[in-house]
Amino acid sequence: MILSIFFKLEDTEFATAAAMKARKSVEMELEETQNHLDALSKSKKEMEERCMQLSREKNEIASHLEDSEEEYAELLKKYKALVAQVHSSYCTCLISIEKLESV
Predict the structure, then answer these.
(1) What is the pLDDT of residues 20-73, one digit of tens each?
(2) 2 pLDDT exceeds 80?
(3) Which phi and psi angles does 70 have, rounded to 5°?
(4) Which helix (H) or strand (E) holds 96?
(5) What 3-state DSSP class applies to 47?
(6) Mean pLDDT, the chain, as a whole number?
């Protein structure tokens, strides 16, 4: 009976050692997973901040583009008006030249 108890004790000690080893392994795996999660969270936060920065830059560029398009439209109107004015002046000059030549 003592031998049976001894073997049971030995089995229990072996099972306890195995359980402790498994627990240590799980704790280490949990720590690695937590470290990985922390790194991913940090990366996610950095990427979200970068995304916000790029979004602000995109909006700023879009605003500048809109301003530039408005300036271009105004310049094009002025250019067309000047071309029309030059054309009109040219026609007036031609008419004046014709009148002078006919006199």
Answers:
(1) 999 999 999 999 999 999 999 999 999 999 999 999 999 999 999 999 999 999
(2) yes
(3) -65, -45
(4) helix 2-102
(5) helix
(6) 95
Angle at 80 between CA 73 and CA 71, to 5 degrees: 20
Residue given tokens 């920065």 in the structure block: 53
Q: Would the CA dihedral through 68, 71, 73, 76 be positive or negative?
A: negative
Q: How many helices (H) and strands (E) does the chain have?
A: 1, 0
Eight-state DSSP code of residue 1: -
Q: How far apart are CA 90 and CA 84, in angstroms?
A: 10
Alpha carbon distances (Å) from 97 to 47, 89, 90, 94 = 72, 12, 10, 5
The pLDDT, as a whole number, for residue 101 is 84
In the numeric block, which tokens belong to residue 85? 């004015």
- Residue bearing tokens 């949990």: 30
